[in-house]
Design goal:
By secondary structure, the protein is α/β, with parallel strands linked by helices. The chain has one domain (about 1-210): 3-Layer(aba) Sandwich (Alkaline Phosphatase, subunit A), CATH 3.40.720. About 45% of the residues lie in helices and about 15% in strands. The protein is built from eight helices and eight strands. Strands 2-8-5-1-4-3 form a six-stranded mixed β-sheet. Strands 6-7 form a two-stranded antiparallel sheet. α4 runs antiparallel to α5, α5 packs antiparallel against α6 and α6 runs antiparallel to α7 (about 160-180). The protein binds zinc ion. Zinc ion binds next to loops. Zinc ion binds near residues 8 and 40.
Length: about 240
């Protein structure tokens, strides 16, 4: 199985830019109504464990929060690569650098271009490692924060967001052409413009390259969906 974990990928933006490879065979919105806030780490942790983790993850220390593999659906796979996954294998240094630059931007100490450059550099690093891992593990889960990180400072700037969605569409297209496996594209939450900036919304996204027949699934439902898909593959 391949999981493309795309932070803040928004269903309306995928449709707006006609990203066919991200939409795949079945796509839709996820139901985040059980969550009070759309916090990135909480939502990925809940996706990984199949449980609402909101009460268990304090805001102050959320980025350091780390699950054990046996608490997650990763245990259903004999081999896996979980690349830069929040609440599991997050590249602390890369993300800390992004958060520091974000703060410096609001303190007028760096330009948006300097921030964007770091985000794109981290993205390229993950992309390289993701495609290196493809085909070498039972599960490859690659996390990309591009839409979230660029979106926070530039969601209201169409040209920038189009470039982001074209890039993510390109990754999905390349995955589809290079492996014959179950592909799940999933986001934690969506995004909406606030002036030039962007803020999290409950418009999460999912898609599969086969008909699974979901209807507004909760993000916590994927744990069992993934377990079933693994069983089907084994018995098939
Ligand atoms: Zn997020």
């Amino acid at each position: 199985m391949i999981i493309l974990a795309l932070d803040a990928l928004d269903v309306r933006m995928v449709e707006k830019y006609g990203c066919r490879s991200l939409m795949q065979v079945e796509y839709g919105q996820t139901d985040l109504s059980e969550f009070e806030l759309e916090r990135t780490v909480v939502l990925w942790a809940s996706f990984l464990t199949g449980r609402n983790m909101e009460a268990e993850i304090p805001v102050e220390t959320q980025w350091e929060f780390t699950l054990k593999p046996e608490e997650t659906f990763l245990k259903f796979f004999e081999t896996y690569k979980a690349l830069d996954v929040p609440a599991f294998s997050l590249k602390q240094e890369n993300h800390k650098r992004e958060r520091v630059l974000l703060k410096k931007y609001f303190d007028d100490e760096v330009s948006v271009e300097e921030y964007d450059e770091t985000v794109w550099r981290n993205h390229e690093e993950n992309k390289r490692e993701f495609f290196e891992a493809l085909g070498r593990f039972d599960l490859v889960m690659g996390y990309f924060d591009l839409a979230d990180a660029i979106g926070h400072l530039s969601f209201g700037i169409p040209a920038k967001m189009e470039a982001v969605y074209r890039e993510l569409e390109g990754i999905a297209k390349e995955v589809k052409s290079s492996v014959d496996d179950v592909i799940l594209v999933i986001s934690d939450h969506g995004m909406k413009p606030v002036g030039r900036y962007g803020d999290h919304t409950k418009n999460g996204f999912y898609s599969f390259n086969r008909r699974v027949g979901l209807n507004l699934p909760k993000i916590t439902e994927f744990f069992n969906i993934i377990r079933r898909l693994v069983q089907v593959e084994r018995s098939g």
